[in-house]
Request: fold
Amino acid sequence: EDQVTQSPEALRLQEGESSSLNCSYTVSGLRGLFWYRQDPGKGPEFLFTLYSAGEEKEKERLKATLTKKESFLHITAPKPEDSATYLCAVQAGGGSQGNLIFGKGTKLSVKP
Amino acid sequence: NAGVMQNPRHLVRRRGQEARLRCSPMKGHSHVYWYRQLPEEGLKFMVYLQKENIIDESGMPKERFSAEFPKEGPSILRIQQVVRGDSAAYFCASSPGGQGSSPLHFGNGTRLTVT
Reply:
């Protein structure tokens, strides 16, 4: 069964304290792995797409990497405005376009 | 450049009533998707539509739920005879046409409360 597991469920950091969020996946034929950010009361906001092992994408303080079994979202010197829930999702080979399997997310809190 | 628009933002229905949720995709997007987010759960895929066609409804409950994306106007997710378990946030997303793994762009959701 296709599955996505994110850890930790919640993460508290001090401003400037770098860390990583993990997304482990089991999927038949990965077509794409997506990272989203979700603020309270809002919809998910697209961050990155990764397609193959070894691929990396960067945007400001965020860097996403992909291996054959997991993806990491590295946050360098976070700021309070980075506080949000970060969602990982995969598109499996057997699924239709847009049929994504989401993890439950990691809730990140960054204290000043 | 408007994003995905959903309305209403909040909807309260009594058990047994009908709920209609509307979604207008981003300009230039012809593919629409509906997801449901239950408390403490991840987003779950429900249905994928193109204009006048349902492409994949593998995540839709077999009864009481239906979706459409007419030639003109927004996509509609309809829930008949709502029950308390239908209380959730319903998100619509859209993407451009064509093949491949285009990222989905989500609206801010409709929060349905069934009393």
